[in-house]
């Protein structure tokens, strides 16, 4: 006869452990110490086996019966419920070990092996440090879009709109790496497109008038501030490099005199290249800072 919840609550411990049976092999083992443990007796491969289903009241009578039915379905499929339970525990432990921090660190190590520029690595590391306090210890496969959005909105509300957008992209790269290495099913940041404030871009008017351009060059050559800044302004006018390229530039030996050619070896992001520009002899007075 099936047991009732009232009968379970009223069951008292005895000198020896005893069973209170339900149906279908399900029973409650009551130990002398007072603990009440659900067990399921079944046969598999011609052998009698016992499956632990948890303790009462953490696992209610209804939940124990649901677990019994799930075990029966496994038996119908030719699978041993005890083996399946062990595999589930192993999978759960493995999933818990694959946290956001672990995958993020692996991604950074991968970027280093690929020879990414130091500045790129510093930027990625800094961006991920903004997400680690909230997401770091969470299993990567269990992180949801609302969790990521909460992190991003915390930055977005402080007016750091561009940082929030870049962080979303960086977090996305972590999830894409997790998907590629079979540790996550999808990238939750994909659903967050359009959820952040779009930074307002201020466009600067270009100097297109020849007289205004001449005035700009005279102002550059007349600048009497720091020598490094003066040299940089002049090189900007002569070489047209990106600001990041100019900051990372260094002079190198060249087969031609310095008065006719200056060679700048630059590193920008993951792109490495040597940029060469020729100028007339008068440009040697730029005085490129070493």
UniProtKB/TrEMBL annotation:
The record's section on PANTHER family has:
PROPHAGE INTEGRASE, PROPHAGE INTEGRASE INTS-RELATED
Source domain of life: Bacteria
Using the record's annotation, list all stretches that form the Core-binding (CB) domain. 98-179
- PROSITE patterns, per the entry: CB
Write out the similarity annotation.
Belongs to the 'phage' integrase family.
Q: Which residues cross the membrane?
A: none
Read off the InterPro entries from this record: CB, DNA_brk_join_enz, Integrase_DNA-bd_sf, Integrase_DNA_bind_dom, Integrase_recombinase_N, Phage_int_M, Phage_Integrase
Q: Which GO molecular function terms does the record list?
A: DNA binding
Which keywords describe this protein according to UniProt? DNA integration, DNA-binding
Traced from the root, the source organism's taxonomic lineage reads: Bacteria, Pseudomonadati, Pseudomonadota, Alphaproteobacteria, Hyphomicrobiales
Pfam families recorded for this chain?
Arm-DNA-bind_3, Phage_int_M
Q: Can you say what this protein is called?
A: Core-binding (CB) domain-containing protein
Q: Name one GO biological process term.
A: DNA integration
